[in-house]
Automatic annotation (TrEMBL):
Belongs to the diaminopimelate epimerase family. Its EC number is 5.1.1.7. The active site is at C75, C200. InterPro entries: DAP_epimerase_DapF. The keyword NADP does not apply. This is Diaminopimelate epimerase. Pathway: Amino-acid biosynthesis; L-lysine biosynthesis via DAP pathway; DL-2,6-diaminopimelate from LL-2,6-diaminopimelate: step 1/1. Keywords: Amino-acid biosynthesis, Cytoplasm, Isomerase, Lysine biosynthesis. It holds the Pfam family DAP_epimerase. Homodimer. Substrate binds at N14, N66, G76, N77, N173, E190, R191, G201, T202. It comes from Pedobacter duraquae. It catalyses: (2S,6S)-2,6-diaminopimelate = meso-2,6-diaminopimelate. GO terms for molecular function: diaminopimelate epimerase activity.
Amino acid sequence: MTTIPFYKYQGAGNDFILIDNRSQNFNNLSTKDIKKLCDRRFGIGADGLMLLNSHADYDFEMRYFNADGRLGSMCGNGGRCIVAFAKHLNLITMETNFLAVDGPHYAKISAEGNWVDLQMIDVEEIFTDGAASILNTGSPHYVTQVTDLEDLDVYQAGFEIRNNDTYRENGINVNFIEDKGDRFFVRTFERGVEDETFACGTGVTAVAMAMAKKNGKTGKLSQPIQVKGGELRIDFNYDGTLFSDVFLCGPAERVFGGSVSI
């Protein structure tokens, strides 16, 4: 049996298990182990698990696993939470440069350590699938507008799109949007979790970009987003072709810590 010290973090209700793996003691966690740790009945419970690894050229490396136990693509809220974890470990103070699966990321964190602005990748290509927008913000996203989002069966609607003939093999995250005037209300079905989550960082980033393009907005923009778990904000520049200087901004809070044996 292996005993693993861990911390639980959440960003707008998107929750994660964080493990300090600078010692390389937990490299042998299996898909089955990770899936069990993320299980909300038989484990700790989380949307994903992250290992914080050492890296010669960066403050740290983020290695992210989905709740199904498999290696994931970039997770925006996970990225913000691991920055807060790195501050807790005294690896960083107010700023950091770290490495994730989609490349280097810069982030800044509040003095209290509970608010993180995370720089996301630049995006140029947005495709369409009928009325929906398709883009990759570190993870692939399907963005579609609906009405009466509060009453939508997001699991069923998202499951059908994620598993249709186009997306079944590689999967896609499905974001449903309702325009509330001063903000967008977003609910997301996430691949890897295979269910609705309370927030999705790369998803709300994709929403902000897709809607800016659709509505013909350019320049330096700031888009508030409401999710089931709270409020997030996307700051970015859009010149009509390229989305750059993109920041996912929001809370990243430590919930509890402990140890678990597997």
